[in-house]
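Possible regression after last week's pipeline update?

I re-ran a chain I had predicted before the update to compare outputs. Posting the input and the new output here so someone can diff against the archived version. Not blocking, just want to make sure nothing changed silently.
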Amino acid sequence: MLTALRSLAFLLVFYAGSACFVIAALLGGLFAPASIPWVATRWSRFHRAAARWLLGQKVRVLGELPHGPYLYILKHESMFETIDLLCLFDRPAIVAKRELFDIPLWGGIARRYGLIPVERTAGAAAMRALRTAARAATAQGRAICLFPEGTRVPHGESPPLRAGFAGLYSLLGLPVVPIAVDSGRVSPRGRFLKRAGTITYRVGDVIPTGLDRREAEARVHAAINALNRSV
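New output (post-update):
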């Protein structure tokens, strides 16, 4: 019963608050476009605070999170980490599916924020545009982030990486920082009930550039699934 009440309180508070942040971002886009990253970061902090105080979910980071021109590859188990990335990094450039940018209101805000769209069946021109956007982001000191599984997966499962990771790894020529996440233990995909607990980010060893595709994928796959045994 307590878990259900906490989950309901989080649902009401978070989505009501999010509506206010969307309005603020829309107004910012009209009158002060440079304010959108500031609004987005506060939204992420609001989300983390709501999860902490309403759901009883804490966050911890194991290992050193290096900052610089890296490609950050993360496990994807729930909505939590997609929003919380803005707490981990300073205005991260998240590579997101192209169709998400067609969502009314949200899509326009995402573009102004600086998310990077990618098409699953991208041609040469689209990949060149992706590389240009990523290089511009790294030149600004922004982190490039990717969820290589393509969608949220239940905790404990380790599906193969989508082809997009290998393409980005080769295209960008950046060392990779793999990050395991176990948010699905307490916030399972598609479930209303969210449990109290600690959400862990485990930072793996940096994977250098220049590896062949199979080795790079194998090392990333192992690193982002490092928390799977902690069920």
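Follow-up from reviewer: compared with the archived run. Residues 57-224 form one domain. Marking as no regression found.
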